[in-house]
Amino acid sequence: MPIPQPLTYHAFVELAAADPAVVGLVLKGSRAHDGMTTEHSDHDLYVVLADGARTDLTRFTGHRTPDLDLAVITLTEFRAAGMPGFERYALARAQIVLDRLDGGIARILAAKARLDAGEAFRSSGEWLDAYANSLYRSIKNDRDGHSRAARLDAADSVRFLLELLFALDRRPRPYNKYLEWELTRHPLPGWDTGTLLEVADRISATGDVPLQRSLFTRVEEAARRAGHGAVLDAWGRDLDLMRLR
User: Fold this and answer.
1) How far is Cα of residue 206 from the mean position of the Cα atoms in its chain?
2) Separation between Cα atoms, residue 112 and residue 88, nearest integer Å
């Protein structure tokens, strides 16, 4: 089949679908998130090849244009992508364009979208400790008159908090671009999406200490219910600075 220049998304999909070495095509990014595409959105496509297969499509490895970015990888490599890594959320919400494995590609994506119990517990404990650390530093810096440092630490704490809340729900945290999209469609249990986003915005912008303490009260309750009391108790009397007075 002649290759059109420049290569378009639809032309490449047609080309790849005709190649028996291709076992899956997976679209990620804004094109996979309903309502998020703009005039600048390209097509980010994983081309999944059967292990050991030979194909001329490997010549497109690293192909990148304003319309089309291609990642040409083997099935084994695809299973490992984002496990762990920054690609995990992108693949968790990716769209399947082609699945020649009788649902095998779908099962791989589903596994990326759901942390197993052990991974979720370990990750949430680590993110809880990181959140407490930044929260503590923010409040201490505010107390000592270091307002800029207090705001920066507060902003850091929001990042760790979001990682924690998604880990508690056994989900990879979305990129900031897709945070509101994700929470609107898939809210975190026990959290009102609008309130959570508003509180995150305000804390990141102002470092509001009473608001940080109020939020920590809810987080502490949730963390203890999830079995992370030891992580919190390791902070000892420093918890008093973080809690509502």
Assistant:
1) 25
2) 6
90 and 168 part of one domain: no
Give me 104's structure tokens: 């095998």
Contact 90, 112 (CB under 8 A): no
What CA–CA distance (Å, rounded) separates 150 from 139? 6
Q: List pLDDT tens digits, range 158-205.
A: 999 999 999 999 999 999 999 999 999 999 999 999 999 999 999 999
Domain of residue 52: give its range.
9-113
Torsion of CA 7, 11, 17, 18, to 10 degrees: -90
Which domain CATH number covers 30? 3.30.460.10
The number of domains in the chain is 2
Task: Name, in order, each residue with C-beta under 8 angstroms of 24's C-beta and a sequence gap of 6 or more.
Answer: 46, 47, 48, 75, 78, 96, 98, 99, 100, 101, 104, 105
Instruction: State whether 126 and 83 are in the same domain.
Output: no
- Is pTM, for the whole model, over 0.85? yes
DSSP 85-129: STHHHHHHT-EEEEE-STTHHHHHHHHHHS--HHHHHHHHHHHHH
| Residues with Cβ within 8 Å of residue 68, at least 6 apart in sequence | 7, 8, 9, 12, 42, 43, 45
What is the rounded distance in angstroms from the CA atom of residue 26 to the CA atom of residue 51? 17
Q: 244: pLDDT confidence band, cut at 50, 70 and 90?
A: confident
- Cα–Cα distance measured from residue 171 to residue 164, given in angstroms and rounded to the nearest whole number: 10
N- to C-terminal Cα separation, the chain: 71
Task: Classify residue 175: in a domain, yes or no.
Answer: yes
For residue 72, tell me if it sits in a domain.
Answer: yes
